[in-house]
Amino acid sequence: MFLIMIHRKESERIEELWFQKYRILKRLGSGGSAEVFLAEHQALSSFRAIKKIPKSEKLHDIWIREARILKNLSHPSIPAIYDFEEDGSYSYIIMEYLEGVSLKQYRKEHNLNEKEIGEISLQICRLLRYLHELPEPLLYLDLKPENLMVCGGSIKMVDFGAALTKEAWQRRGITMGTKGYAAPELFTGKALDQRSDIYSFGMVMFFLFTGESPQYGEKRIQNIDRLSYVDSQWKDIVNRCLRYLPGMRFSTAKSLEKRILSALGKSSEITDHPRICLAGAFPHIGVTHICLSLAVYFAAQGKNVCYCDQKEEGVVETLLLQSKNKKNRETFYGVHLSRGEETKASAPFDLEIHDYGSLEGIDHSALYQEQNTVLITGGKCWETGLLEQALLKFEYPPILCINFVSGKAFCSLAKYYANYRCLRIPYQPEVFTDFSGQWKRFAAQLWEEIRQC
Description:
With about 450 residues, the chain is α/β, with parallel strands linked by helices. Helix content is about 30%, strand content about 20%. The longest helix is centred in the N-terminal third of the chain and has 19 residues, at about 115-130.
């Protein structure tokens, strides 16, 4: 709601002094519930925007709530709140003056290339990451081109009227948002989280590439896959943001940022090496089979991989006895093998795969604190209860890899567990050779998920 732009036709020259310190220069514009004025702070000789809101206005409390949110934020791309005044009839919010145009108008006036769109998208993504990673995380929930301003070469985010803190979004009632840009869960009453903003981000990217805004209830917008002038990397990013099921979208703005940086040909500042922990929601679901298949497959792709057996069931010893590599008794099909937590810290592994076996009957307290966890489960109806009990134990939502299911059954389960990232494990009878195309795609998807956490 803090859309602070110059509307030349509405500008009116005014010479008044408000609150003994703000010289009012002109009226910048007005909406149905407030007027905005350009003012000069007399002592500081700097410009301010002052929003004048009638106390009788039904949206008055929303404006004030928005100001309270903004006053606690400190980011160069978010307008600062400097002061608050009131009299018997009006409230006055004094804020940073931003001179620019909306992103919607800017897109109409400029024919943007992919690099320019990527740089704008990166700025917006980093803004979302700032909001989502605050000590008290904030969802923006109304991301659209009209609520973003282009000021020089910088993107500014305005209108925080729909924003919710974590506590508020977990007990929300009616949620404000713009149909077409807002995620489906805003209108279905389902749980909200950071992925709701990521959906809207995808719609903003779609607009930047096409210049086409979604018109809710009218003709459907075209699929970005049909646009020959958009590179496949950007199509993949947009399509993943716009998945109907939240679990299929990017899980965080941080993971989204990594993908945008990659598409721009830039390296991420985050260079940590992936560590993935796999466990079964119940016994005999194929955890070790999948762990070893992944380890050998990634080793064959040229990655330096370590398989770590956390179960202490003698898997490593058995593999070493069968190893054909007589020169190095610590590797098997190119995979370094270790037991428990003996993984060598000095080894520059590209990937560590930790096999925890079944969750049943073992203390997995350390596992429940890990971020990169994969929980392997099946699709039978009597297994659902066991899975839901297991999910409650994890501090961070694990990736659900579903084994022994058809494609149709997987789609039903992915819809049921919509808030989790879900992957289907393809049939791979041979652990160490002859990887099928389906397995390769599964491994590539899992690798991408790991890298984004």
